[in-house]
Design goal:
Elements: H1 3-17, E1 25-28, H2 32-46, E2 52-55, H3 58-66, E3 80-85, E4 89-90, E5 96-97, H4 104-112, E6 114-122, E7 135-139, H5 144-153, E8 159-160, E9 162-163, E10 166-167, E11 175-179, H6 187-195, E12 200-203, E13 205-206, E14 212-216, E15 222-226
Parallel strand pairs: 1-2, 1-3, 3-6, 6-14
Antiparallel strand pairs: 4-5, 5-13, 7-11, 7-12, 8-11, 9-10, 14-15
The protein binds ribulose-5-phosphate.
The site of ribulose-5-phosphate has 18 residues, from α2 and α4.
Length: 229
Amino acid sequence: MDNAAINGKKIAAGKAVEYIKNGMTVGLGTGSTAYWAIQNIGEKVKAGLSVRAVATSIQSEELARQLQIPIIPFSEVDRLDVTIDGADEVDPQLNLIKGGGGALLREKIVAAATKFYIIIVDESKLVRQLGHFPLPVEVAPFAWELTERRLAALGGNPKMRLAEGKPYLTDNQHYILDCSFGSIADPALLHRQVSDITGVMEDGFFIGMADIVVAGSPSGETRILKKGE
Ligand code: 5RP
């Protein structure tokens, strides 16, 4: 990853963390951009900020624990005040493709329980139409070949995500099929079609979920995009 992207991620993360206030219950995202947000929250906790957090992956939970951010079981809360997470692509309506880091199912459960959902990206993730980044689809290992054929029939050209030559396993012990649909004119429709396939646990479309997107530029500026604007 180049320095410009790293800078954009760090800047966006710093801006987003300003939305976190004392006493809030916070969702922690996953990935290299969310990493900076968690680091930043850790610094604030060290300086006296009082929050409780739920993590979207084992990796983010471990990082949060190292930074002394209090982690609570998700089952203990119904609603999160704020969640800060990254994305792989963001379109002008703030629809997202997520799941490049493989945490999409937990990320979506956390997002759906969040009152104010903040996405942080470096500005290279802002696109006119979703689809250049392959859509991650989390599937049950049982009869995954059948699910793969259904996704292929939709035009997704699915590819099993691998780790060290074996199928990558999510934190929920599922597989991921990365699907290349090309430029996606109607993400909401495709989301419904993919979700309708039995065996699909979740897809990487986050439609209408983000309240704001904070985009960081390499030169250190942030742009805040708001839902409905
Ligand atoms: C993980 C995700 C990440 O938020 C997404 O892949 C962006 O990652 P990064 O911040 O490393 O570019 O959805 O499942």
